[in-house]
Amino acid sequence: MGLFDFLGGKKTARTASAPAPVAPTALPEQEPNEAVAEAPSLLPAGFASAAPDLHLPPEAPPLEPIDPTEIEPTLRDACAHLERKDLPGAMLLYENLLARGGDAAEAVTTISADLGANGFTDALIELIAPIYDPVRHGAIAGINLLQAYLTVQNTDAAQQLLDVLRSLNQSDLETRLHGLASALEQQKRARSGSGRGGEINMISLSKPIWYYGLESAPTLLPTQNPASKRIAFVPLAVPRAAADRGKEADVDPALLEWSRAIPLAAADAFFFTANYAPLALVTLRQKLEYWPHSVEWLPEQVKSLSTKEGGECDYAVTGFVQADGDQVNIGLRVWETAKARARKLFTETCPREELGQRVAALLKQLLYYMETQPLPATASPIAVRSETLSTAQMTGYAQSLDFFLTEKQLLPREQLGDAALKLDVLAENAVTNASDWRAIALALSAQVRAQAVGIKSASSSAKIQAVALHIPELEGIVASLS
């Protein structure tokens, strides 16, 4: 489960009880001229008191307690109002339910989850904050409230609530609270300007990463349907990445590579469908380095992708990649961007050496869930794709991105590290997977980009020429390699 996914409660009814209405006590009748002792006035001098014969209306009796069987239907009706963007209608139902004693833990959790998932964070805070009791309502409603505070960047309230939730000492929430604490610290540093900081840039790639470098072979790509749905793949969170950027070196570099490679592979797969136009996003800091994410995107960040500035995306896929000893946990979460609503979470746990195969399995599930349509066989020479991926190929996506951004002067050349070794790894992967267009294209485009910035590797160039020369669409590009 993601760190910023609003959590729903189990819809079980709670038996409400309230005291029976008490009838107002009748005042004794007085004769009009009967003397009445005047009580000392508590009003400041110059203020008139109410007329002594003014009869105030009795207090309204308490509302009728809600029937437990009404709670779940009321919550469903309110959620339907939210989905229609009718917040006033939903709030009327919620306020009536809470006023009539329908404020059990399950109901409060569901209300907070539905308001948050539909993007009404201000209303969530307004309704839940005054009544939330961590002992009575439980930690889940509190986590939803905490996420709302983070969304509106109320760091003071978020810190106070985080301290309260930690004091509950619930071991099953430790990982989630740790992620929320990291997000809170990031917000504090961003507000104060402390830490390494710097401008964060978002790079959007609308074509497969391997195509950048092979543009002279335009027939490789199919023509996209203008009516295709747009789907964005954002960098995955690495939950164990230190919130303090100064500790980034302690993070497993393979995890950081995979956090970029998996979205690139997913966008690649969706590009070769008939009904989706994918974008792969990459975050950089001041053209100096990649910017790792320690937590998944906030709902409001996901929602921003639905705007014109965000690419007018219909869907987004966030997720995480996390090491647990020799095992790797991977999660891909599908969002509907306009509503900032999480739709589905796909997860896999596998040994590191099986990462590629398991990512391929996740992508197959994702393609099926999103009801993708296959391209006609004539749309592209690579319309028929392999459904397998190796861990080496996953690394290839990340390394191909390195060369692309370096050639575009968006990353300094020093970020490449041992560039010749990376080229050799990509070339060897192409030889091993000579029947897979993806492996050849990743190696060839990286070679072209490297050559453009003066990096050459004779051994890798020879290997790529050996496996790519027989492909007509690539003959001219292969021949240009020195």
Description:
- The chain has two domains: 125 residues, Serine Threonine Protein Phosphatase 5, Tetratricopeptide repeat (Alpha Horseshoe), CATH 1.25.40; 280 residues, 3-Layer(aba) Sandwich (Rossmann fold), CATH 3.40.50.
- The chain is built from 16 helices and seven strands.
- Strands 1, 2, 3, 4, 5, 6 and 7 form a seven-stranded mixed sheet that branches.
- About 12% of the residues have low confidence.
- It has 482 residues and is α/β, with parallel strands linked by helices.
- The longest helix is centred in the middle third of the chain and has 19 residues.
- The chain is elongated and about 85 Å long.
Counting DSSP H or I runs of 4 or more residues, the number of helices is 16
CATH class of the largest domain: Alpha Beta
Question: Beta-sheet strand percentage?
Answer: 5-15%
- Taken in chain order, the helices and strands follow as HHHHHHHHEEHEEHEEEHHHHHH
Uncertain stretches of 5 or more adjacent residues: 9-54, 193-197, 241-249
**Integer count of domains:** 2
Class inferred from helices and paired strands: alpha/beta
Task: Give average pLDDT, whole number.
Answer: 78
